[in-house]
Design a protein that fits this description.
The structure is a homodimer.
Chain A: H1 3-16, H2 23-34, E1 40-41, H3 42-50, H4 58-70, E2 74-78, E3 84-88, E4 97-102, E5 108-112, H5 116-127, E6 130-141, H6 143-150
Parallel strand pairs in A: 4-6
Antiparallel strand pairs in A: 1-3, 2-3, 4-5
Helix pairs in contact in A: 2-3, 2-4, 3-4
Chain A binds a DNA duplex through helix 2 and helix 4.
DNA sequence: GTGCGTGCAAAGTCTTTGCAAACCG
DNA sequence: CGGTTTGCAAAGACTTTGCACGCAC
């Protein structure tokens, strides 16, 4: 999905819900699109944004990220480091991607695997649970940290 | 695993690491064993404990839970409600159990499914990642909340 | 006895909220 | 213009930390 499409999605969903397409919201979403980092926290975004826009407050970043999440443009993640992180909810791109979290260096790597196909039926049948979303976190040690530890 | 076995495991692992088997640590672990609730927060434990032991401080509860987790007696969980929760790390009982989190009522139900068997090789081979543990969270709506919403 | 563990309160970190001013539509 | 949204600072929620005292070993 192109960057401009995502910004357009924001514009549309905001209009639909009668919210306002403010300068701050554009800037904050753009920071996501510009960033190479996949899993940013509110502080990360704030840092990216405040150089060129010193007038934007941290509270606005928090409020915007929450809004974008409710509009299903972002997903809120938690890697257990005490802060919420966000990623683009690019549902068209990868159907199901998950996270490998290194216990050594804290790096987070993504991987794709559609184990849910088989699981979904089982859960809905046996537990009567209607699935909306899922998150798989796999903890362990990445290649680099395995090397470091074995020396 | 019997309750007394878990307490013994605590005693052994504490001795092994030259920590101390204090009254507070026993009481706090016992609270876990006595509780019917599976996923308790530090405050939950503190509430259970403070009636009979008003001298135990919340900080001690936090410190004990962290110790037990490092001794692999407990697992630290996060269901996105802003506080850490813990469960017994009863590895002998269920090999791999995961959590269904209801977006309606917040209830957490456990389910077992060993999808990891197939996944583990793939991750280790393709990503060179050495798996230690994994957590699968499935978000959706439980039976009761589906009924409520459809009325 | 010695040093780890505890209780208390204070500090820390992340996040939310109240309110007047600014802004979008 | 009118109701949202924002910035700021303050408050809130959870967790960690500093320090003197107490307890396990």
């Amino acid at each position: 999905m192109k960057q401009s499409d995502i910004m357009n999605a924001l514009r549309e969903r905001i209009k639909e819900k009668k919210y306002k397409f403010t300068r701050q919201r554009q800037i904050i979403l753009q920071a996501f699109l510009d960033s190479k980092e996949n899993h940013m926290s509110a502080e990360d975004i704030f840092a990216m944004v405040k150089d060129e826009n010193p007038d934007i407050g941290l509270a606005t970043v928090y409020r915007s990220l929450e809004l974008f999440t409710s509009l299903e443009l972002l997903k809120k993640l938690d890697f257990g480091d005490g802060r919420s992180r966000y990623e683009l909810n690019d549902r068209n791109l990868k159907h199901s991607h998950h996270h490998l979290i290194c216990l050594g260096c804290g790096r987070v790597v993504e991987f794709s695997y559609d184990f849910l196909d088989g699981l979904k039926d089982k859960i809905e049948r046996e537990d009567g649970f209607q699935i909306v979303d899922s998150q798989l976190k796999v903890y362990g040690y990445c290649r680099e940290c395995q090397k470091k530890n074995s020396i």
